[in-house]
Amino acid sequence: MKFQGIIDKIAITLDNKWLLVTFKFPYRTALQERAQTLTEKDLDIEFDKHTESKTDQQRKYYWALVKELRKKIRNGITEDEIHENILRRDGISEWLALPPDKMYVAKEYYKIVDDMGPTVLTTPSGKEIEARQLRCWKGLRRYTVDEACLLIDSLVEECREQGIPTDTPDEIKRMKEQWGVNIG
Question: Which InterPro entries would you find in this protein's record (predicted)?
């Protein structure tokens, strides 16, 4: 699992055998669940300075618009709920069928996983396997640059409908050109 965060504290144990590092990163339920399964396990860890990618720039713009939309709506809905509503309405969804004991795989990868009910899968040998039908939406972090632009376009339109100022069409075109999106 890969995530972005910052190093908060560094300490060395009294016997100089261990380096204790405390990280800070945005809370995600899937990350917490995964971290709990890895406690006291040997891990491969790699440190790199974060560099902002095109998709990082897109996410910043997207979340700035979501924040403005939440301020405008003012009905107690959270930014994450707005984000999930946008993903459900305009995002890319995929259908999966997984055995009930493997549903955690989908929940680790996807932002939203809706259980649509039971189904039966048949293997090439004819064996029937009970499974759950899942409709899944990727989180913005897993979108390609082009996919993220489509989601941003939808959000910009919604903001304009709500009377929320956004960048001008020319500014948005310039951003897309910087992101390498074919706007032709």
Answer: NinB_sf
